[in-house]
Amino acid sequence: MACEHTFEVIKSVKEINSPEHCEKCNAVAVRTIATSQAFFGANDWDTAHYSPAFGKVVKNNLEARRLAKERGYVEIGNEPVENIHSHYDKAREQKADKRYQDVVDSLTNLGEIA
């Protein structure tokens, strides 16, 4: 059981999920976030944000992808447009190649092409 010693820690948003240990008993401290304090360092908010999907602050997209993979989540709606175009361009090309090959095969069967 923890000793119930209270202490304050001020840290950036990037470090908010790192656990703190009691300086007296070394137990992992229970976190209470003070509402009266201002957050400093706007740059922290540029790269870190609270994610309701994970229930914690996520530092960057790489961490979000890692957490999603660990939890079996599938991200939807965030696919880059280039990947979508590439996928459909490739599908159209394969369909056209198949139609061409079907025509060549049918003409070969008719003896038109040797």
Beta-strand level of the residues, as a percent range?
A: 5-15%
The residue-averaged pLDDT reads 78
Q: Compute the separation of the termini in Å.
A: 87 Å
Please, how many helices?
A: 3
Summary, kept brief:
The chain has helices spanning 42-47, 61-71, 81-110, and strands at residues 49-51, 56-58.
What does this structure look like?
There is one protein chain. The protein is mainly α and 114 residues long. It has a domain of 36 residues. 41% of the residues lie in helices and 5% in strands. The chain contains three helices and two strands; from the N terminus they run αββαα. Strands 1-2 form a two-stranded antiparallel sheet. Strand 1 and strand 2 form a beta hairpin. The radius of gyration is 28 Å and the shape is rod-shaped. 3% of the residues are buried. About 9% of the residues have low confidence.
